[in-house]
Design a protein that fits this description.
Blueprint (H helix, E strand, L loop, with lengths): L2 E6 L4 H12 L1 H6 E7 L5 H8 L3 E4 L5 H8 L4 E4 L9 H18 L4 E6 L3 H4 L8 H14 L4 E7 L1 E2 L2 H4 L6 E2 L4 E6 L6 E5 L1 H14 L1 H4 L3 E4 L2 E4 H12 L2 E6 L2 H6 L5 H14 L6 H11 L7 H7 L7
Parallel strand pairs: 1-2, 1-4, 2-3, 4-5, 5-6, 6-11, 7-10, 9-13
Antiparallel strand pairs: 8-9, 10-12
Helix pairs in contact: 1-9, 4-5, 5-7
GO cellular component, one term: nucleus
Organism: Exophiala xenobiotica
Protein name: NmrA-like domain-containing protein
Length: about 300
């Protein structure tokens, strides 16, 4: 009998990748039956999942009753959380994570797989306090580890999709047809990137294939590390434009952003000082890539499949 794998964010990037990769794996598709949890079961993406014989249920992470219904009878759950904004951003996101995890325990699930992130606050010993989207997930991870349920963790690098979905962090036109990619970090800073749509599920598949082996473990998900200078060059090659990298001050970078300037400025400053995953980040990624199921997409390969474009 198949295990029911409940997936939050099923119509989004991470959850969709988990479902797609389970369904495409001959062994795991027999071992697990995905249950897509979505706020809108009538959306086009939800209907597309139903066409693939995936069970689709309505569940809103902020609505306890709907989460209880969505997890009823499930064995495994993949949990991902979206950032909250405002003065209570960290606690709001953490409380959502905590509520879902608590319900998973109450409903007698066997296993939680949680999409976490490194804590900038912890890595910097309290120096960086504004990176709430990372810190809330790290706090959620710590909490899940205290619960009487097996768990494992996915800790993803930057999504390659962000080059399109976060244009406010993209190259800035110089007015002469050239562009500048600016960060408050040195050009040599290497950051991890993953093709979230295609590859996040490959890391989760490794956990699903051997859940007992990886209980308590974290898969640091990235296809590789790329310096900021390399990223500017790759984006330039893909777009056919001249893009150069420039390091700017914290204040200049913060003021260039339309919102959450402190979060992004402190985030890149923390990564410049401690690394995205903290000490030993490349070794952590090497271990993860050696244990996954499937080939990962490199950033050059991704940009070849999905050419980067800039408005002239």
């Amino acid at each position: 009998m198949s295990n029911i794998l409940a997936v939050f964010g099923a119509t989004g990037t991470q959850g969709g990748s988990v479902i797609n990769n389970v369904l495409s794996d001959p062994e795991l598709s027999n071992k697990y039956k995905p249950r897509a949890i979505t706020r809108d079961a009538n959306s086009a993406k939800a209907k597309a999942l139903e066409q693939r014989q995936v069970e689709v249920v309505t569940g809103d992470a902020s609505d306890r009753t709907s989460v209880e219904r969505a997890l009823a009878g499930a064995n495994f759950v993949f949990i991902m959380s979206t950032p909250s904004w405002g003065p209570d951003a960290m606690e709001a996101e953490f409380n959502t994570i905590k509520s879902i995890a608590d319900i998973a325990v109450e409903k007698g699930l066997d296993y939680i797989i949680f999409s976490t992130l490194p804590s900038c606050y912890d890595m910097s010993h309290g120096k960086y306090t504004a990176v709430t989207a990372f810190d809330a997930k790290a706090k959620g991870e710590k909490y899940i580890k205290t619960l009487p349920i097996k768990s494992a963790f996915l800790c993803a690098g930057f999504f390659m999709e962000n080059f399109v979905t976060q244009p406010f962090l993209g190259p800035i036109p110089n007015g002469d047809g050239t562009y500048t990619l600016a960060r408050n970090a040195p050009s040599t800073l290497k950051l991890p990137y993953v093709d979230a749509t295609d590859d996040v599920g490959k890391f989760v598949n490794a956990i699903l294939a051997e859940p007992d082996k990886y209980a308590g473990q974290t898969f640091y998900a990235a296809a590789g590390f790329y310096s900021l200078a390399e990223i500017a060059t790759l984006l330039g090659k893909s777009s056919g434009k001249t893009i150069t990298f420039k390091q700017v001050s914290d204040d200049e970078f913060r003021s260039s952003l339309p919102f959450m300037g402190d979060l992004f400025a402190q985030g890149f400053a923390c990564q410049a000082e401690y690394g995205y995953f903290g000490p030993g980040g490349e070794e952590k990624v090497d271990w993860a890539t050696q244990n996954i199921r499937g080939k990962l997409t490199t950033l050059p390969e991704y940009l070849e499949k999905h050419p980067f474009s800039l408005e002239t």
